[in-house]
Write a structure and sequence with these properties.
By secondary structure, the protein is of the alpha+beta class. 17% of the residues lie in helices and 31% in strands. The strands form eleven sheets. An eight-stranded mixed beta sheet has the order 39-40-42-41-43-44-45-46, with helices on both faces. Strand 8 (138-143) and strand 9 form a beta hairpin. The chain starts with 51 loop residues before the first strand and ends with a helix.
């Protein structure tokens, strides 16, 4: 691919180090020597800002003081105006603003007019003349050219899933019922009523001997039964012969839940997905809330743990609205549907217990793909409505299928199978149909990075993008000429917008803003609404023509003067050579305010911050969600610390192998990377390796535990915030990807859970735990504290936060937490 950009000018042509062979280092997988590929360059970042010193109190204050940036921005129906929300000062309410795409002046929209604005997920008629959306559960239709608005529903019920059919009618869902509106007449008809129950049996003939004799001997009983039969027959005749009566009830079975249902654009069929109804929790899944609003201890309901999850699958039901029939679609035609993909894992676990595992084929449970990042669904019809594609995943997380439906044979036709011996990613699963075509396009990590492919139903797939970068956020143009996408082509931490020609596969760079950029294509597809940030600049809105090498115009300027006045140290993005992989470890480094390049003596103290989520990228060139930590790191750097923020293995943005390095060994590759970070700071930033601390929250708290427990001499102090201590107690959707399930792979859980390594604690540890955390339960901390008490450990302390959830809400809690971290580093480093 070729790209035209001046961004390369922002990369300093300084290699971090010369290429060399690590003769003493070995791969954790193969245990064989590897050749070291050195990081390409250091990225130029903005200069330090402001002149007023940042204080810990200010850094942890409510973020209103930063300026209240634009949120939830979207285009108007006519592509001339931008709507967005801004938080009110001092409370959690939002105001909505309207701003012309050619103006830098915004106007607040009155509450009485909010229903006129449309929404980000509004839908459009095939001719683009009408826009439909919901506001507070009611349906509205806007004429794009005139702006005239018609309210279609006015009720306390909540309508959703709007869709224009090919005949111009509008469909919306109310619960499990599909309603069709003729916009010319205003008449609403029930298109399909999906019932999660068994079909009524009607009037049945006597079945037992006694019942049959009763009907023979007692005329009254026989007559009453005949009358019921006559009434039922007449009702069936009336419903069938009189078109004014709704007759679209479909019974999918008692004890089922409707996972998804999508109507074809021609209004002739529905593909529905159902599964057995099951609670999201068990009776014992509770969390005590000691400071309830009524003064009592409340037993809050929380989710099930991964250790308690049971395998479950789904059913696909094809509903034909033309003849009121329904058919179950078999999944047994999917390649690998019955493979024992965990055979090697089971063999290892059996062998540890002195048993022999015998591998046998058996059907696997399969469900709709649940992507954590997309706003589309896993069922997509083509424009004519004669083909439907569905994306499915195995419950064991090893396979993803993109398939179409062969209705006549009642089976799926696999169009693409993505298998991963570790786990299939729960992002980068966008897919759809080219307009007015039977060709699919989709994202896949099969090359090692997320890229765009297209595939005709009866042909081979073609890769449209290639390279060691990650593609996401696809938008197909109406004329099929291009797919817009977001990617980090020029540097893992720099995200711009590109577009690829669907026919030629030729890509062009669209934006050149040097930071983190997201986009929305305008409804008329001539402009882009951009949300852009830089390391030192929170996100603002921009608008640009939708063309290659575009020039963007800034629309908003919401950052406060108070924030701009603060003296903040801009981190430099560097590439740390790795001892365990050919890829470098990208990291932000905050150099001390008095640091002089080339200084020696190794007398600097240092801190490594561990970002949360595991699969998250923080060493990028955009504004970080960890803005409090950013200011805290600036404060530390102003006091002489070197601070490093690493995108350790498992982090997002670096491809499949980087993501899956932690498979069945969470806490091993990541801590190896932290050790490389400490070595790099000693060699390049004058850091004393005997004066380094670490901290982080959630996954970062877990990493702090693993670092202090498994490599006790690496850090002299650590703070574990809202930390995971035993992965068997965490949730299923996240954990089972990486560690399988505890009943199948206990080795992986024992290898990856800090509670099994608590005896290794040597240096000082601070544990900060919110008590009403419904993500990482307070029980995690309680169990590991008891473990350390029993191990007679002396150098740890625990701080609890009685009213806080996983993400703190009170500035006083943030301040207390970071005062403790700050104090510990001051005392120990």
């Amino acid at each position: 691919m070729t790209f035209k950009s001046s961004t390369q000018k922002t990369l300093v042509a300084l290699a971090v180090a010369s290429s060399f062979m690590l003769s003493g280092c070995q791969s954790t997988a193969s245990q064989a020597p590897i050749t070291k590929t050195v990081a390409p360059s250091v990225v130029v970042t903005p200069q330090d800002t402001g002149s007023t010193a940042i204080t810990l109190e200010q850094a942890m204050a409510h973020p209103d003081w930063l300026g209240r940036q634009p949120e939830r921005a979207y285009w108007s129906a006519d592509s001339s105006t931008i709507f967005y929300a801004r938080k009110q000062q001092g409370n959690e309410l939002r105001d909505v603003f309207s701003q012309s795409a050619t103006s830098q002046t915004a106007e607040q929209v009155a509450l009485s007019a909010h229903h006129t604005l449309g929404t980000k997920n509004a839908v459009y008629s095939n001719d683009k003349k009408l826009q439909a959306y919901t506001f507070e559960g009611n349906v509205f239709v806007k004429n794009v050219q005139t702006g005239a608005i018609k309210q279609v529903t006015h009720s306390s019920a909540r309508e959703s899933n709007l869709q224009f059919l090919n005949d111009g009618a509008l469909v919306y869902r109310q619960g499990t019922t599909f309603n069709k509106v003729d916009l010319a007449t205003g008449i609403t008809s029930e298109l399909a009523n999906i019932k999660l129950s068994d079909k009524p049996k009607g009037v049945e003939a006597p079945a037992t001997y006694i019942a049959k004799e009763q009907h023979k001997l007692i005329d009254y009983v026989s007559l009453m039964h005949k009358n019921k039969q006559d009434k039922q027959t007449r009702k069936e005749q009336l419903t069938k012969q009189n078109t004014s009566i709704a007759n679209a009830q479909f019974y999918l079975g008692k004890g089922k839940t409707l996972v998804n249902a999508q109507l074809s654009p021609n209004g002739q069929a529905i593909l529905a997905v159902i599964k057995d109804q099951k609670s999201w929790r068990d009776d014992a899944d509770i969390m005590p809330n000691y400071i309830g609003d009524d003064g009592t201890i409340k037993a809050e309901k929380v989710r099930r743990r991964v250790a308690d999850e049971k395998s479950a699958g789904s059913e696909l039901i094809y509903i034909d609205l033309t003849d009121n029939s329904q058919k179950t679609i078999s999944m047994t035609s999917l390649p690998g549907f019955d493979e024992d993909v965990l055979a090697s894992v089971k063999t290892e676990n059996y062998a540890r217990d002195g048993k022999t595992y015998k591998s046998e084929k058996a059907p696997r449970d399969i469900n709709l793909m649940m992507d954590w990042g997309w706003d589309q669904g896993a069922i997509v019809w083509n424009d004519t409505g004669d083909q439907v594609a569905v994306m499915l995943e195995a419950w064991d997380n090893k396979d993803r299928w993109l398939a179409t439906v062969n209705v006549d044979e009642g089976k799926l036709v696999s169009q693409h199978r993505l298998h991963d011996d570790a786990w299939v990613n729960y992002t980068y699963n966008d897919f759809g149909w080219l307009n007015n075509s039977d060709t699919l396009y989709y994202l896949s990590e099969e090359s090692g990075y997320s890229h765009i492919y297209k595939k005709p139903l009866t042909g081979k797939a073609t890769e449209l993008t290639k390279g060691n970068f990650v593609v996401s956020n696809l938008t197909l143009t109406d004329d099929n000429s291009a797919i817009y996408y977001k990617a980090n082509v020029e540097h893992p931490g720099l995200y711009e917008i590109y577009k690829v020609n669907v026919e030629s596969g030729q890509s062009e760079q669209v934006t050149n803003l040097d930071g983190m950029t997201d986009y929305q294509l305008s409804p008329d597809q001539t402009k882009l609404l951009l949300t852009h940030s830089k390391i030192m600049q929170p996100a603002e809105l921009y608008v640009a023509p939708a063309k290659a090498n575009t020039q963007a115009t800034r629309l908003t300027n919401t950052v406060s003067e108070e924030f701009l006045a603060k003296k903040l140290i801009a981190p430099k993005i560097i590439a740390v050579p790795s001892s365990h992989t050919q890829q470098p470890i990208y990291a932000k480094v905050y150099y001390p305010a008095d640091y002089v390049e080339g200084e020696s003596g190794q007398n600097r103290k240092a801190v490594i911050f561990n970002h949360g989520a595991g699969y998250l990228q923080n060493s990028h060139m955009g504004w970080s969600g960890y803005f409090r930590e950013f200011m805290f790191h600036s404060l530390l750097a102003s006091e002489g610390y070197v601070v490093m923020d690493m995108d350790y293995r498992a982090s997002k943005g670096y491809g499949r192998d980087w993501r899956t390095a932690i498979y069945r060994q969470m806490g091993t590759p990541e801590i190896q990377d932290l050790a490389d970070g400490v070595s790099w700071m000693a060699d390049n930033a004058n850091v004393d390796t005997a004066a380094v601390g670490t901290y982080g929250g959630s996954y970062g708290g877990f990493m702090t535990f693993m670092a202090l427990f498994t490599q006790p001499d690496l850090f002299q102090a650590g703070a574990a915030l809202r930390p995971v201590t035993d992965w068997a107690h965490y949730n299923g959707p996240y954990t089972s990807n990486i560690l399988n399930h505890p009943d199948v792979d206990p080795i992986a859980y024992e290898r990856s859970s800090p509670i099994y390594f608590a005896e290794g604690l040597k240096n000082r540890l601070l544990i900060n735990a919110p008590m009403v955390d419904d993500n990482v339960f307070f029980q995690d901390v309680v169990r590991v504290v008891q473990r350390m008490i029993e191990l007679e450990k002396e150098n740890f302390e625990t701080a609890i936060y009685p009213v806080e959830p996983h993400g703190f809400r009170q500035p006083s809690s943030w301040l207390d937490e970071y005062r403790r971290i700050y104090k510990m580093f001051k005392e120990t480093l």
